[in-house]
Specification:
The chain is mostly helical. 82% of the residues lie in helices and 0% in strands. It contains two helices and no strands. Helix 1 packs antiparallel against helix 2.
């Protein structure tokens, strides 16, 4: 089995994608609602990742 070597950002994006898919599938009833909610969750995760990344960058100088 090949070894996967991800940096911190790639792992965070992968985690956000997988969690968004699961949340979309288990919380909504129609395919359209699932897609919209999954994309919304992914967007929120990405905004949070970049926002916290900038806060850490500004805090550490």
């Amino acid at each position: 089995m090949p070894k996967v070597n991800l940096n911190h950002m790639e792992a965070s994006i992968l985690m956000a994608l997988l969690i968004s898919v699961v949340l979309g599938v288990v919380t909504k009833k129609t395919d359209q609602e699932r897609l919209h909610y999954g994309l919304y969750c992914f967007g929120c995760f990405m905004a949070t990742l970049f926002g916290l990344g900038w806060l850490m960058k500004l805090g550490h100088g």
